[in-house]
Amino acid sequence: MIIVHVPATSANCCVGFDSLGMALDWWATFRFEPSDVLKITGCPKEYADKNNLVVQAFQKTCQHLHQEMPNFHLDIDSDIPFSRGLGSSSTCVVAGILACDAWFEAHMNKMEILKIATEIEGHPDNVAPCIFGQAVTSFMDQLDPRMMIVPCASYHGLAMIPDYPIVTNEARKILPKTLPYQEAVSQVGHALCFIQALQVGNEMILAKSCQDFLHEPYRKKLIPDYDKIHSICQDLELGMWISGSGSTMLALSMDLARLEKLKQMVEQESPHILCRKVRVASKGAWVENE
User: Fold this and answer.
1) Are 43 and 137 in the same domain?
2) Predicted TM-score of the model (pTM)
3) Are 162 and 272 in contact (CB under 8 A)?
4) Residues 160-203: pLDDT tens digits?
5) Closest to 31 (Cα-Cα) out of 62, 58, 10, 50
6) For the chain, what is the domain count?
7) Annotated binding site: which residue ranges?
8) Which helix (H) or strand (E) holds 159?
9) Residue 48: Cβ within 10 Å count
């Protein structure tokens, strides 16, 4: 049996739109074992067929390796919610690629794995931290993803997950086509300071640098709870952002007491929001054999 463990992720990290993602210590587990027919368990019935994203990623990797697609029993054990901005699709993509690599003992390197994952996902900002762990900044160089790991200080996080989804395509439609030059300059400055604050653990700068101009002013309209949560985080001097396209919001701090206070306030004011404590995952997806 091949077992693949893949972390949830938070893309964009407020000021890193489409270019910065973070692995979270919240794991999905995928088990693969030989079978006479394709069998999928552990997911809704509508996803239990050959169109399952894990299966599609496995098949694409077979093509890359020039191997025949085998039959297997795939069992999925994941409570990472769909359409909440926590990288549930990326976990499936990375799991399928790593499982195929292990199945055929191909020993692909991580950059090769990243390229296949990016071809499936369309961009590397979610799949890169899935593969490498920590925070990862990335961009596309023609058809090739380029990335750098951003080692993070000992941050804890609070994922605040509303009981309603956000469809990524709808979240993209709401974005503007152009941006004023001065806002672009401000975005660069905030993003550079944010990355440094992540590395050295400067919480004051982290909170101050969480001011986005590219997507959050527009996407927050899709999240009725955003303004209330954002105001609470500002009062507590906590860095906070919309995770991926939403609807999850993530706050980060090295002070567990402040995150606990945030959790209590959110649960009291918004009982429909699930709060889950997380940490920045120090490593990315990994494989074990049984």
Assistant:
1) yes
2) 0.94
3) yes
4) 999 999 988 888 899 999 999 999 999 999 999 999 999 999 99
5) 58
6) 2
7) 81-91
8) strand 156-161
9) 17
